[in-house]
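W.,

You were right to be curious about this one. When I first looked at the sequence I had no strong expectations either way, so I just let the prediction run and decided to look at it fresh. Below is the sequence, 83 residues in total, followed by the output.
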Amino acid sequence: MKILYFAWLRERVGRGQEDIELPAGVTNLGELIVHLTALSPGHASAFAQGKLVRAAVNQVFADPSTPVAASDEVAFFPPVTGG
């Protein structure tokens, strides 16, 4: 699974992307976030304010109940505003 981090999430995690093996039992985005949070203090910091993190699975906006699979690309980013 390819994980992408943007903006301040990238700064906190310390990298813009990483490839991970989807852990057994992780079936949706919410479970994936719990797993990622446990990887390092930087990951924990990135996801500490969960309401400020948006996600997309395979370039489609996603919520915690969105299913994930080992071949997916998951992106995490802050809310986007326009003007």
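Here's what jumped out at me. The chain has three helices and five strands. And, maybe more interesting for your project: The two ends are 34 Å apart (CA to CA).

Coffee later to discuss?

I.
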